[in-house]
Amino acid sequence: MQQHIETIEIATRGQGFTDVTAEIAKRLNAAGAGDGLVTLFIRHTSASLTIQENADPDVRHDLLNALDRLAPQDEDYVHTIEGPDDMPAHIKTMLTGTHLAVPVSKGRMMLGTWQGVYLVEHRARPHRREIVVHFAGEIRGG
């Protein structure tokens, strides 16, 4: 078994979903990934990673609304030093998660037909987020 690890930076536009599927696929290809497992980890506590439907954007819209209902900004939070959207962002990250593991076959993530890998920005303003990409398995030419 061989490994490849790198950190990529993704710019977000503020609250919402950013599709990172193609970027992860590009990194796997550049690393020469064969069969194995890619683990993705976001290095933040107010943004998360998820695998979600990539066909109908209404799904992502509805998911954002559902998360806002679960962690609304107008609650009486103690942690408010970074603004009214920060504590709800921490709650949303806890609910959605900071890491994913995706099987890889012949260098390609084994996602379903309608699945994509998304960075979910829970803060209102744009951010630059870091995702650690760790591939473990067969590396072609390695």
Explained architecture:
The chain is of the alpha+beta class and 142 residues long. The chain has 3 helices and 8 strands; from the N terminus they run E-E-H-E-E-H-H-E-E-E-E. It has helices at 21-31, 57-70, 86-96; strands spanning 2-11, 16-19, 33-42, 47-53, 99-105, 108-109, 115-121, 128-139. The strands form 2 sheets. A 5-stranded antiparallel beta sheet has the order 1-8-3-5-6. A 3-stranded antiparallel beta sheet has the order 2-7-4, with helices on both faces. A hairpin with a 2-residue loop joins strand 5 (99-105) and strand 6. The longest helix has 14 residues, at 57-70. It is elongated, with a radius of gyration of 16 Å.
Secondary-structure blueprint:
Layout: E1 2-11, E2 16-19, H1 21-31, E3 33-42, E4 47-53, H2 57-70, H3 86-96, E5 99-105, E6 108-109, E7 115-121, E8 128-139
Antiparallel strand pairs: 1-8, 2-7, 3-5, 3-8, 4-7, 5-6
Summarize the structure.
The chain has helices spanning 21-31, 57-70, 86-96, and strands at 2-11, 16-19, 33-42, 47-53, 99-105, 108-109, 115-121, 128-139. The protein has 142 residues and is α+β, with helices and mostly antiparallel strands. The mean pLDDT is 97.
